[in-house]
Amino acid sequence: MYLILFGAPGVGKGTQAKLISAKYDIPQISTGDMLRAAVKDQTDLGKKAVKIMSRGELVPDDLILDLIRERFSQPDCDHGFILDGFPRTLAQAEGLDELVAEMNLPELRCIEIQVPDEKVIERLVNRRLCDNCGADYNMITNPPPADMKCTICGGNIYQRKDDNEETISNRLEVYTRQTAPVKEHYQKKGQFFSVDGQMPVEKVQEAIQAILNN
After folding, report:
1. Does the active-site annotation cover 36?
2. Structural domains of the chain, ranges and CATH numbers in brackets
3. Which of 53, 59, 60, 81 is the most exposed place for a label (fewest CB within 10 A)?
4. For the whole model, what pTM was predicted?
């Protein structure tokens, strides 16, 4: 199964990707996670990306595609993968098409999770993450313990620096401007589907599963 989960930051792509990954035993590939790891490890890519990411802007396509190519070559991708948060631009989508053809992979299905901007801002401003296992918390819907220690692994729970209203609004503007052509790209291929991301997590998963079953 070769799948793209599509949607603005904060719509729940990561959560749904983890559920699909567990069900089908295929890896979740998050360019955001890979970039943050590169920044943390202070790799050459990380040093270039950190200033761009802190402004809520997109890292250049050639750097992202290099990361993706390397990831696709790993053994756990032999039977499929879930791309979480990529592609975000038409150039990335076209570059991904070329990469898929080059590596003789099946055509990718793209599933969009739709959530209104105001709900996305509310979610992300209140998001908290574990710095060890990456577990998600939310100050409204799933608040962390008072000691800010992860209930799963005991790691420290923190708020990402870019999870503030100004940066989130900028990210949403960038997303809308640059990803509209990506949606059209996959619609033309007949490989684009949408689900309502405002539903409970399990209902969103059911809607995605119905698409996958077809």
Report:
1. no
2. 2-124+165-213 (3.40.50.300)
3. 60
4. 0.77
